[in-house]
Amino acid sequence: MTATGAFATIVLERVLDVLTVLALLALFIFVFDPGVGRASPTAWAAVKWAGADGRRWRLAALVVMFVLAGDPHAWGGP
Predict the structure, then answer these.
(1) Using an 8 Å Cβ cutoff, are 59 and 19 in contact?
(2) What is the maximal distance between C-alpha atoms in the chain?
(3) Model pTM?
(4) DSSP string across 20-67
(5) Residue 26 CA to chain centroid, in angstroms?
(6) In terms of C-beta distances under 8 Å and separation of at least 24 residues, what long-range contacts does 59-67 make, across chains too?
(7) What are the pLDDT digits (tens) for 2-61?
(8) Residue 27 half-sphere exposure, CB side, CA atoms within 13 Å?
(9) Residue ranges per structural domain of the chain
(10) Does the pLDDT at position 71 exceed 80?
(11) Does 66 score more than 70 pLDDT?
Protein backbone atom coordinates (compact mmCIF):
# COMPACT_ATOMS: atom_id res chain seq x y z
CA MET A 1 0.00 0.00 0.00
CA THR A 2 1.29 3.42 -0.86
CA ALA A 3 1.59 6.27 1.62
CA THR A 4 -1.23 8.09 -0.15
CA GLY A 5 -3.48 5.04 0.10
CA ALA A 6 -2.72 4.63 3.79
CA PHE A 7 -3.45 8.32 4.43
CA ALA A 8 -6.73 8.11 2.50
CA THR A 9 -7.73 5.05 4.54
CA ILE A 10 -7.06 6.90 7.79
CA VAL A 11 -9.00 9.96 6.65
CA LEU A 12 -11.94 7.84 5.52
CA GLU A 13 -11.96 6.00 8.85
CA ARG A 14 -11.99 9.30 10.77
CA VAL A 15 -14.86 10.62 8.63
CA LEU A 16 -16.89 7.48 9.26
CA ASP A 17 -16.15 7.76 13.00
CA VAL A 18 -17.47 11.33 13.05
CA LEU A 19 -20.55 10.29 11.10
CA THR A 20 -21.21 7.50 13.61
CA VAL A 21 -20.93 9.89 16.55
CA LEU A 22 -23.33 12.31 14.84
CA ALA A 23 -25.75 9.45 14.22
CA LEU A 24 -25.64 8.49 17.89
CA LEU A 25 -26.19 12.12 18.92
CA ALA A 26 -29.21 12.39 16.63
CA LEU A 27 -30.56 9.07 17.91
CA PHE A 28 -30.26 10.22 21.51
CA ILE A 29 -31.91 13.55 20.79
CA PHE A 30 -34.83 12.37 18.71
CA VAL A 31 -35.52 8.94 20.22
CA PHE A 32 -34.31 8.91 23.82
CA ASP A 33 -35.49 12.18 25.37
CA PRO A 34 -34.91 11.46 29.07
CA GLY A 35 -36.56 14.68 30.24
CA VAL A 36 -33.36 16.69 30.11
CA GLY A 37 -35.22 19.46 28.32
CA ARG A 38 -37.12 20.38 31.45
CA ALA A 39 -33.95 21.22 33.38
CA SER A 40 -32.61 23.71 30.83
CA PRO A 41 -34.90 24.31 27.85
CA THR A 42 -32.48 26.70 26.13
CA ALA A 43 -29.55 24.28 26.31
CA TRP A 44 -31.76 21.39 25.19
CA ALA A 45 -32.95 23.41 22.19
CA ALA A 46 -29.33 24.09 21.22
CA VAL A 47 -28.45 20.39 21.52
CA LYS A 48 -31.48 19.41 19.41
CA TRP A 49 -30.47 21.93 16.77
CA ALA A 50 -26.93 20.52 16.74
CA GLY A 51 -28.30 16.99 16.34
CA ALA A 52 -30.53 17.99 13.44
CA ASP A 53 -27.72 19.93 11.77
CA GLY A 54 -25.37 16.99 12.24
CA ARG A 55 -27.90 14.73 10.55
CA ARG A 56 -27.87 16.97 7.48
CA TRP A 57 -24.06 17.05 7.35
CA ARG A 58 -23.87 13.29 7.81
CA LEU A 59 -26.21 12.69 4.90
CA ALA A 60 -24.33 15.18 2.70
CA ALA A 61 -20.97 13.57 3.52
CA LEU A 62 -22.28 10.09 2.69
CA VAL A 63 -23.68 11.28 -0.63
CA VAL A 64 -20.36 12.93 -1.54
CA MET A 65 -18.39 9.80 -0.62
CA PHE A 66 -20.69 7.57 -2.70
CA VAL A 67 -20.48 9.92 -5.70
CA LEU A 68 -16.69 10.10 -5.48
CA ALA A 69 -16.37 6.32 -5.04
CA GLY A 70 -18.75 5.62 -7.93
CA ASP A 71 -16.43 6.84 -10.68
CA PRO A 72 -12.94 7.68 -9.39
CA HIS A 73 -11.57 8.17 -12.90
CA ALA A 74 -13.90 11.11 -13.50
CA TRP A 75 -12.42 12.84 -10.42
CA GLY A 76 -8.79 12.20 -11.30
CA GLY A 77 -8.47 9.08 -9.16
CA PRO A 78 -6.62 5.84 -10.01
Answers:
(1) no
(2) 54
(3) 0.51
(4) HHHHHHHHHHHT---SGGGT-HHHHHHHHHHHHHHHHHHHHHHHHHHH
(5) 10
(6) 61/15, 61/19, 62/19, 65/12, 65/15
(7) 777 777 787 788 888 888 887 887 777 777 666 766 777 888 788 778 777 777 887 888
(8) 6
(9) 3-75
(10) no
(11) yes
